[in-house]
Specification:
By secondary structure, this protein is of the alpha+beta class. It has a domain of 51 residues. The chain is 34% helix and 12% strand. The protein is built from two helices and two strands, in the order αββα. The protein has a two-stranded antiparallel ribbon. The longest helix has 18 residues. The mean pLDDT is 73. Keywords: Signal.
Length: 103
């Protein structure tokens, strides 16, 4: 029962963090302003310059960031570990944090 409870708390924290994203300002005219001329996206390369190399793909490693107030747990597993192994490690860390005495 305890792993299910901790998994539920972790899911709620992740969902809350995704919902609490701050929206930036709308620009000089605000969000409802008419659109002006569109600038090109990114830097413009000089004529004859070789194209820039594409960015490498993101790693396959699982990465968990759990935050509750001032407490934050950031777990990043190795690329060759499975998601289940990384989740189990994260749950073990959460179990140890829950078992700590409160100040």
């Amino acid at each position: 029962m305890k792993p299910y409870l901790i998994s539920g708390v972790a899911l709620v924290l992740l969902a809350g963090a995704a919902h609490a994203q701050v929206i930036g300002p709308g620009g000089p005219g605000g969000p409802g302003a008419p659109a002006g001329p569109v600038a090109p996206a990114g830097p413009v390369a000089a004529v004859g310059a070789p194209p820039a190399a594409p960015k490498p793909p993101p790693g396959k490693a699982a990465h968990f960031i759990l935050q509750d107030g001032d407490a934050m747990v950031d777990v990043k597993c190795a690329d060759d570990e499975t998601m289940k192994t990384c989740a189990d490690i994260t749950l073990q860390i959460l179990d140890k944090i829950v078992a700590l005495p409160k100040p």
